[in-house]
Design brief:
It is a single chain. This protein has 336 residues and is an alpha+beta fold. The protein has 10 helices and 13 strands. Strand 3 and strand 4 form a beta hairpin. 38% of the residues are buried.
């Protein structure tokens, strides 16, 4: 979404999002006077100014090994139909669809949600953490009976594998990690040790029970940066692009770290914020005995999943050390 412009005899790259986005906006019958990129992960996100207010345009970028893009839209529509109000409301295309194919790729337009990105919010203390936990429980409740056809596990990247398939393939994943990162013997020994202790905490029967009693899809990246905050209230949950087939306990474990300190699954300054998140979530929707039994597994797996795709191995190993030294016990007690 850039073009070259000659300025003072120099070729300069200048962003022109509005001009580039016009082919997408035509599908919605929308005219716009301004557009700016607001944030991006796997997808590109733009704030677009139109005569009837700002809109949010999303360009979906396919990634090998992710669940099919239709899964995101089906989940989005299903959750909205259950009365969950904190997903951005879609704007229909001229043909009445919630998304459309364009020369830029698959795009969707939603109403703009006013507020700041949650990663910029500076008060993730007990009350705000409890609000975020309650929203996640409500989101899971809305998706509780969503039963899409699962993707074939051998076509999914490791980040999107459900627990049982990840367990089956983890030796291959560890070997691939070593090949890609040229990890030394000491690091590989530490990783294998952590994988072995994680596998020892996986209970296949408890996992099957958990899938039957809770949601079988997760947001996949529930963190402050994927919330919109307006006047100390959560105004929206955004970015379902990491959603995949899994027990809700995965999201709970992931969020316990994300809201426990500096955003990112890294060592936590204290156990209290993460424990507060787990406790507040379970007040809204308690875990079953099977789900409680799986929490120690998922607390380790959410760290290892990202470590094994090559993301910050050393700090993630340090977080596993912290789990050993009391963090796990605090989070498990909070869920009981």
């Amino acid at each position: 979404l850039r073009h070259d412009r000659w300025i003072g005899g120099q070729r300069t790259v200048v962003k022109t999002p509005l001009r580039a986005l016009e082919p997408a906006l035509q599908h919605y019958g929308v005219t716009a006077s301004a557009a700016s990129e607001v944030y991006s992960g796997f997808n590109l996100h733009f704030r677009v100014t139109t005569p009837d207010g700002d809109k949010h345009l999303i360009i979906f970028r396919p990634q090998a090994g992710k669940p099919p893009r239709e899964f995101q839209f089906d989940l989005w529509q299903y959750i909205l139909a259950q009365g969950f109000t904190l997903l951005p409301q879609p704007v229909k295309t001229v043909g009445g669809q919630d998304y459309t194919g364009t020369s830029l790729g698959t795009v969707a337009l939603t109403e703009w949600v006013s507020g700041e990105n949650g990663s910029l919010h500076d008060d993730w203390s007990g009350p705000m953490i409890c609000k975020a936990a309650g929203v996640l429980a409500d989101l899971h409740g809305a998706a509780r009976h969503f039963r899409p056809a699962p993707a074939e596990a051998d076509r999914l990247a490791p980040l999107y594998l459900p627990a049982d398939a990840w367990v089956d393939r983890v030796d291959e994943i560890v070997a691939d990690f070593g090949d890609r990162t040229a990890a030394d013997a000491e690091l590989m020994d530490a990783v294998r040790h952590r994988v072995d202790e994680t596998l020892a905490r996986f209970d296949a029967a408890a996992y099957a029970s958990a899938l039957a009693s809770g949601t079988t899809v997760v947001h996949g990246d529930y963190r402050p940066g994927n919330l919109v905050i307006n006047d100390s209230e959560i105004a929206a949950v955004v970015d379902l692009d990491a959603a995949f087939w899994e027990s809700r306990v995965y999201d709970l474990a992931y969020a316990a770290f994300q809201f426990g300190g500096k955003e990112g699954v890294y060592p936590q300054p204290s156990a209290k914020p993460g424990a507060d998140f787990v406790r507040c979530y379970c007040r809204r929707w308690p875990l079953t005995e099977a789900e409680q039994a799986l929490l120690p597994f998922f607390l380790r797996q959410v760290v290892l999943k990202r470590l094994l795709v090559g993301r910050d191995a050393e700090p993630r190993l340090a977080l596993l050390d912290q789990l050993d030294s009391g963090l796990e016990d605090a989070l498990v007690r909070a869920a009981a």
